[in-house]
Amino acid sequence: MHKSERLFQLVNILKSRRFAITANELANKLKISQRTIYRNIQHLQSSGVPVEGEAGTGYLIADYDLPPMMFTLEELQALLLGSKMVSAWTDPQLAASAQAAITKINAVLPEKLKQQVEELPYLVSTFSHDKAHQEITLQLRKAITNKTCIEFHYLDVNQQPSHRITDPLGLVYWGAKWTLIAYCQLRSDYREFRLDRIQSIVSLTNTFDTNPQKNLAHYIELVKAKYQTKSDDQCHQ
């Protein structure tokens, strides 16, 4: 670990504490010697970071705004890959924010890191995410955020049309297609709807509430339990 990374972690640990933490505890957390902790504390104090305390009693930090974060190459790659996925696969507003984030990251990268980041081995495809898809995603995201009911026309796997009014709970990307997870008012139960099969959509004026038995996290838990049961049954066959 580089010294700059260690100092950043040290500041983060101190900022997260309400009470003083000893040099021994810090040394154990960072897996370095107490002597190195003392040197790092002195370095932070001489740099103007308001670290309070002393050896034997412990240290804490007063209110302090951290300087810009220092990321490792893999952390930068993760951030840029995530931003590219958001830019390609979500709605126009989030895509614009993702592009702005990419621009800010690239603007402060040293030349050596820029070349390494440009060689990112992942390619984010945009082929199946056209403008119509993005507009539907935007409308759904706003409805989910505002807890607004939606009405839409839908084609099932057999191309049979249906009309639904639902409480939209979340958007899930399963690795191939985006899916709306919603509580269907007609069926009084969770339903999944592929976004590429939604023909038209209208946001209604009436709103809905979530509860422990109607929310995205509860739906995901049900899915996990379902597939765990299937896995257990296969193991016992």
Description:
A five-stranded antiparallel β-sheet has the order 6-5-4-3-7. Strands 1-2 form a two-stranded antiparallel ribbon. It has three domains: 3-61, Arc Repressor Mutant, subunit A; 73-118, no CATH class; 131-233. The mean pLDDT is 85. The protein is an alpha+beta fold. Helix 4 runs antiparallel to helix 5 (92-108). Strand 3 (148-155) and strand 4 form a beta hairpin. The two termini are 49 Å apart. It is elongated, with a radius of gyration of 25 Å. It contains eight helices and seven strands. Residues 137-201 form the WYL domain. It comes from Pseudoalteromonas aliena SW19. InterPro entries: CBASS_pafABC_assoc_protein, HTH_11, WH-like_DNA-bd_sf, WH_DNA-bd_sf, WYL_dom.
Quick overview of this protein structure:
Helix content is 47%, strand content 22%. By secondary structure, it is an alpha+beta fold. It comes from Pseudoalteromonas aliena SW19.
DSSP E strands, number = 7
Q: How would you describe the shape?
A: elongated
Fraction in beta strands: 15-25%
Largest sheet: 5 strands, antiparallel
Rg, nearest Å: 25 Å
How are strands sequenced across the largest beta sheet? 6-5-4-3-7
**How many H/I helical runs?**
8
List the domain count as a whole number: 3
Order of helices and strands: HHHEEHHHHEEEEEH
Which ranges are low-confidence, i.e. pLDDT below 50, for 5 or more consecutive residues?
A: none
Average pLDDT rating: 85
Intertermini distance: 49 Å
Oligomeric grouping of the chains: single chain
Helix/strand/pairing class, anyone? Answer: alpha+beta
State the share of residues found in helices, binned by percent: 40-55%
Pfam families: HTH_11 (PF08279), WYL (PF13280)
Domain WYL: 137-201
Organism: Pseudoalteromonas aliena SW19
Domain Helix-turn-helix type: 6-59
